[in-house]
Amino acid sequence: MRILITNDDGINAPGLEVLTAIAHAIAGESGEVWTVAPAFEQSGVGHCISYTHPMMIARLEPRRYAAEGSPADCVLAGIYDVLQGARPDLVLSGVNRGNNSAENALYSGTVGGAMEAALQGVPAIALSQFLGPETDDLADPFEAARHHGVAVVRALLDRGRWDGGDYRLFYNVNFPPVAAANVKGMKAVAQGYRTDTFFGVEPHISPSGRKFLWITGGPQHAPTAPGTDAAANLEGYISITPMRADLTAHDVLADLEARLA
To answer: Does domain 2-193+223-260 have CATH number 3.40.1210.10?
Structure first.
């Protein structure tokens, strides 16, 4: 199996080392693991691509590259330049430092990398490690992902649904903010919504008198509705959410057509 991995925390992020180990275990001794990751952190860029300017790419060692672009850029670079059209069998994106549950998935470069792979017709999984008080006390905050990541990816490859149509499925996986021994299992859940958590801005004045705005986030441990991702994570479960890039609100379409008739 040929696996392409990327992330949004950057080529030197500790979560990428965890993902590399997961990918090698999945690929096996006869497989290949190729890394194309951002040269610098790209958290929060979503599914951004560098459409209006070129990006530099550098070979750091065999099968390991850094690109000055987003995770989606890295997937494109991996498929069409690094692998020279020899398409990977699987793209893994992560392991992100912090959760990409609920509304975070919409901003996530980790999810964006997996989404681009799916749009390119390649099976893809985004993986993120929820952090919290319990993981703060661990020598390895990625312990849950490190110990359970291989089993999750294998379960999805063996028993998950992989379609071949337009806007094909990809998966968003979040490991709970607990020690590996305290993980209760896996749950297939919907994307949740934190009702009181919003991004905003906080203004600051620099010594030169210029105003700068810092993006601020909300509480990450606010539970979402039962049966959704962040709720499952906070209960100690690995959340697995099937996703598509199709943004159509299909539940409204027929009603809207009737209203406009």
So the answer is: yes
